Protein 1
Amino acid sequence: GKRAFVAGVADDGGFGFAIAKALAEAGASVCVGTWPPALGIFTTILRRGKLDESLVMSDGTKMEFERIYALDAEFDTFEDVPQEVRENKRYKEHGDISIQGVVDRMKADFGEQPVDIVVHSLANGPEVKNVLLETSRKGYLGAVGVSAYSMVSMVQRFSPIMRQGGSYLSLSYMASERVIPGYGGGMSSAKAALESDTRVLAFEAGRKYGHRVNCISAGPLASRAASAIGF
Ligand code: NAD
């Protein structure tokens, strides 16, 4: 069977959860990556059965996540994680929460080529509530780093452990191509970068590894991330 890794699942209300479930319905084993600040609540609501209804698949069985990895997509390797983050109470018990850290854990857990499908369903814009005209360099680069460069890094780092014919998917939003007031902080820029990078990564990873790279521009969904900015 196929194994998928879905990055950006911390509840049952977003695209990541729905994609994970669709992949499980199709017979895949599904591992997820969860942002450390959201991981404690996620595992608690899972344990307490609060997601049981959402986890029921069409055959009546309950979807199980094969693994839940702590992942902060702001960091490519453990060396990139600042000391104060490593010592933060939400991070310290998880060790290497970088993108490479998840790659290494999957290898340790399942072997040299453990994955067929990698889904990037995460985004963050620290200044998303600021219009672009009032966005700082730090906020802009933060949005592009977590929401777009993280995909470049994931394709770089997962490709050596992805089987031939494997596939990547990320999620964009129409604000990359049209003005959508409220989608600020450089998030519109991040989605434009993500879409452009998808074309280049598909070209490069296709030739180098035989992997596909795609991006879907999703319609509006009242996920946690979208509700937080009033969408
Ligand atoms: P969501 O809140 O379910 O998912 C976003 C996830 O990103 C959260 O689980 C959050 O914890 C995680 N995250 C934030 N910073 C992170 C980091 N540094 N490292 C790792 N994870 C991090 O919301 P969603 O709306 O389903 O978002 C999923 C994807 O869909 C995003 O790329 C989003 O931009 C995109 N999208 C959403 C909409 C919409 O209307 N909701 C529309 C188009 C595209």
Protein 2
Amino acid sequence: DLAGKTAVITGSNSGIGLGIAWEFARAGANVVLNSFTDDEDDHALAQKITDETGVTARYIQADMSKGDQCRNLITQAGRCDILVNNAGIQHVAPIPEFPQEKWDAIIAINMSSAFHTTAAALPKMRQFGWGRVINIASAHGLTASPYKAAYVAAKHGVVGLTKVTALETAKEPITCNAICPGYVLTPIVEKQIPDTMKEYDMSREEVLDQVILQRQPSKEFATTEQLGGTATFLCSDAASQITGTTISVDGGWTAL
Ligand code: NAD
């Protein structure tokens, strides 16, 4: 039961972040949605969560590629009992051709943002005597794939930051863990399908089964609801002694 808690989820106007926001709201937490846009649709998502669950849901625009906006998101949120660092982007290219600006953007959004939000959130968690930091890393925080240099580096970095955050809060009622999803069928994955179909001359079904789910032994995508459930578990009393570690939700990927 997360009643009375406020959860801030970065990058949560779609996909996994939105799924986690819904699960938190269903568990009674007030939620803050975020992305870099400020559209009617963004605010409508928050309204829908409020209408259907009765919690206070707000949308706050902040660009997670900018350190000061990351910190300002936490300031604007007021309370931040639960912080989910979820915002992320992908770019696929061999290292010599990897565009410098893509490297910088992925490191900033997928990794450095978590440092900035955590720095701003920990004093608030300490003030209210309880906290949960949940970093959405990836199977690519534990293993690698070619052509994903920036993403794999950033996600490994997030796992490292998770351990440091856990050690700095170890004696307090605050935990920090990373969830490492395998593939989840969200826009970040959808965007990779058309190019892969062309590259391998495959149908959509063949790409999903033979390329994308190739390393996921279950041959099933994890769902955003399942990731919401994992995040909600990490906020429970049962998870109080789980800190500084990773939880894989990857259909067996990292067992291979
Ligand atoms: P998604 O594209 O649906 O979600 C990404 C979110 O980040 C969106 O809400 C987007 O608006 C937001 N975002 C992007 N740039 C931002 C910025 N500059 N500032 C603020 N918000 C920004 O994809 P998703 O699959 O839901 O990804 C969420 C997280 O899960 C990412 O960190 C991703 O790396 C991770 N992940 C995804 C998968 C998967 O298979 N989908 C697997 C492992 C890890």
